[in-house]
Amino acid sequence: MKKNKLASILLVALCLASTVKSYAQTTKKWEGFSDQQEITQSFELKTEELLKNSKFITIEQAAVDLVAVEGKKVDMSAVKLRKKALDAAEIAALIQPSFVAFATAYDCGNCHRTHLNTASGYIISEDGLIATNHHVIEGFIESKNGKNLAMSIRTHDGDVFLVSEIISAFKDADLAIVKIDTKGKKLIPLPLGNTAQVGDNVFVMSNPAPMINYFSTGKVARNYLSPVSKTEKLPQTDITADYAAGSSGAPIVDQYGNLISTVSSTRSIYYDMKEQKNLQMVVKNTKPVVLLKELIKSI
């Protein structure tokens, strides 16, 4: 009886494997449509391999460095501003090479696989400087989902790198800059633009979980000063373009493809705020590029 049951289980497993293989072999390639599952699986597998043979910053070191580099100014070359106005499709194609998936690789403790908790980021120098949110780095350090292993970066062409160093941080502005070892590969950085005006068009590329490479458009809703302490206020920019959890650290660009802000958070406004009922709108809070420039010497 036990042998028959085992044989049946093995047969089912073989059938399922055969079905998956057959599906993989016969699935048509649709031009212009990305396979999100394939991208995610490849990201995980490449991260696993890098964890075996690459140098990367650990949780312990990241916790020390994130505090140590607070306010540190980075020496990097300015990227020439783009001046040609583009339509939305052109902007999406233009900024894609500078956009990255910024993931925390972790061990869930229940299986042998390496899992990824993915956020967003963008390239600011060709030699491997990446900008994202400060709270993304804090999330890696806090290690809530299991045992966090490393921070992993995926570029648009499928290359994967582990974060080797935290270069600079601005906690009150929710911004951080990290470094990856590109092994000599030159990346494509985003030019750092200027403050956008209320009513200007904005464009966002981000990874709202579980989606990746999600492009949305909107307007600058308001520019204002927000208190971060009893004595200090910092610039903020609210926009109307959609984004969600997983979009943290994503680039926001203008009609030319220049960076104008960084995704940071959302705030839901309910008719009944106390009971959080009858949602009326979601405010999209971002960190204007002037705050990132505070961390860069040459700008």
TrEMBL record:
<keyword id="KW-0732">Signal</keyword>
<feature type="signal peptide">
    <location>
        <begin position="1"/>
        <end position="24"/>
    </location>
</feature>
<dbReference type="InterPro" id="IPR043504">
    <property type="entry name" value="Peptidase_S1_PA_chymotrypsin"/>
</dbReference>
<dbReference type="Pfam" id="PF13365">
    <property type="entry name" value="Trypsin_2"/>
</dbReference>
<dbReference type="InterPro" id="IPR009003">
    <property type="entry name" value="Peptidase_S1_PA"/>
</dbReference>
<protein>
    <submittedName>
        <fullName>Trypsin-like peptidase domain-containing protein</fullName>
    </submittedName>
</protein>
